[in-house]
């Protein structure tokens, strides 16, 4: 009976982990799709379009470009922090899962993690 409970917990935890990873991957895919959509936009490069449409003068263009670059840097920092926190949570969850596994299960889990890591690397390459 206890073995069934442990098995059920393992299934639930692994399902949760896979769901989290799939959700993150889907989010990344959707973000990439939106970025590609922007490139295909009738506006072309949105920043250039805005400068032209608003007929910015040289001084405004310099300030506008600085504002855009500063915001891009801040957004990149936020993205890096998010990725780091997500990685920490994933690693922590994996460590907790490892604690409840038998030696045989642990060995199989490590193989799975390696396979999954390779799978994700290939997917990133093919984008």
Structure commentary:
The protein has 127 residues and is mainly α. The chain has one domain (2-125). 88% of the residues lie in helices and 0% in strands. The chain has helices at 2-39, 46-53, 58-100, 103-125. It is elongated, with a radius of gyration of 22 Å. The model has no long low-confidence stretch (mean pLDDT 82).
Shape: elongated
How can the largest sheet be summarized? none
Helix content: over 70%
Mean pLDDT across every amino acid position:
82
* Low-pLDDT stretches: none
How would you classify the helix and strand content by structural class? mainly alpha
Tally of helical segments: 4
Report how far the terminal alpha carbons are from each other.
Answer: 46 Å
Give the total of domains.
1
Total strand segments: 0
Rg: 22 Å
Strand-residue fraction?
A: under 5%
Order of helices and strands: HHHH
Note the topology.
Layout: H1 2-39, H2 46-53, H3 58-100, H4 103-125
